[in-house]
Design brief:
By secondary structure, the protein is mainly alpha-helical. It has 9 helices and no strands. The chain has 2 domains: 151 residues, no CATH class; 103 residues, no CATH class. Helix 1 runs parallel beside helix 3. The relative contact order is 0.10. Keywords: Membrane, Transmembrane, Transmembrane helix.
Length: 274
């Protein structure tokens, strides 16, 4: 068993053991005719505070608070375990009142965004690495412009050298917009290789009517088409990671605020604030 697999098993075992302990204690309280919701609610609020603390830890990298890797593992297992705490605290029923409804919706949205992020942060970097050339997000715009200039310069050189405009006409009709504009939101959310395949097929058909000099330029366009599509694909995956993190953090703080308000109102119903 690898170190990673062993660590995963240990994390899962600790999480399940902690949940089992909370459930047994809640059952003990119910058997004594005492409400367990106060106890389980505070356990869930504590978990939410611990999860939110991960963002604070990331802003203090030099603080002697443990490594980021340990905090990340704790964040993952506490986050997954919080679903069990939520199920114990609020069995599968529709929440009562506006405050509970808002709190439940915020928790479910935050939890689902966390699960999606866990999958994406594990799978998307591997897909990015298969592209061969990794470009940081902030440099993608400049790299896109560089590819566009190379394509335009290759076409101009071909027209001057070969004295024919067949490839130039094809470029203006089918490739100019592809190289000069960004892909739309549909591609960014759900990238597809359909346009790449279509343009490569059209360029392949067009080579039958090209001169030898134009065919050499067409080979450059084949390579640039693939580079541009890979760059757009990389931007789409990196944007997805950034957008997910923004949404997840944006949901965390309202969740923490509403959970704290819910705990305060629970104190009022359980005999007033100390």
């Amino acid at each position: 068993m690898t170190t990673f697999a062993r660590r995963r098993w240990i994390g899962a075992a600790v999480t399940l053991t902690a949940l089992a302990g909370v459930w047994l204690w809640a059952e003990r309280l119910e058997n004594r005719l005492e409400s367990s919701s106060y106890f389980t609610g505070w356990m869930l609020l504590t978990a939410i505070i611990a999860l939110a603390a991960f963002q604070v830890r990331k802003k203090l990298p030099a603080a002697p608070l443990g490594t980021s890797a340990v905090w990340l593992q704790a964040h993952i297992y506490i986050g997954l375990g919080s679903a069990g705490l939520y199920a114990i605290h609020a069995p599968w029923r529709w929440p009562n009142g506006v405050l509970e409804t808002i709190l439940s919706l915020l928790y479910i949205a935050t939890f689902l965004s966390g699960v999606i992020g866990l999958y994406w942060t594990r799978s998307l970097p591997r897909r990015l690495s298969r592209l061969g050339q990794e470009v940081i997000y902030e440099r993608i715009g400049a790299e896109r412009h560089r590819i566009q200039e190379r394509a335009q310069n290759a076409i101009l050189a071909a027209v001057r050298t070969a004295g024919a405009t067949t490839l130039g006409d094809f470029y203006n009709a089918r490739l100019h917009d592809y190289f000069s504009t960004r892909r739309g939101w549909r591609f960014r959310i759900w990238p597809s290789s359909e346009l790449r395949k279509s343009l490569l097929a059209e360029l392949t058909d067009a080579t039958r009517y090209l001169s030898d000099e134009e065919r050499k330029t067409a080979e450059q366009l084949f390579a640039l088409l693939r580079q541009r599509d890979d760059l757009d694909y990389s931007e789409s995956l990196q944007w997805r990671l950034r957008a997910w993190l923004f949404v997840h953090i944006a949901l965390t703080y309202p969740l923490l605020l509403v959970a704290g308000l819910h705990a305060w109102t629970a104190h009022l119903f359980y005999g007033g604030l100390p």
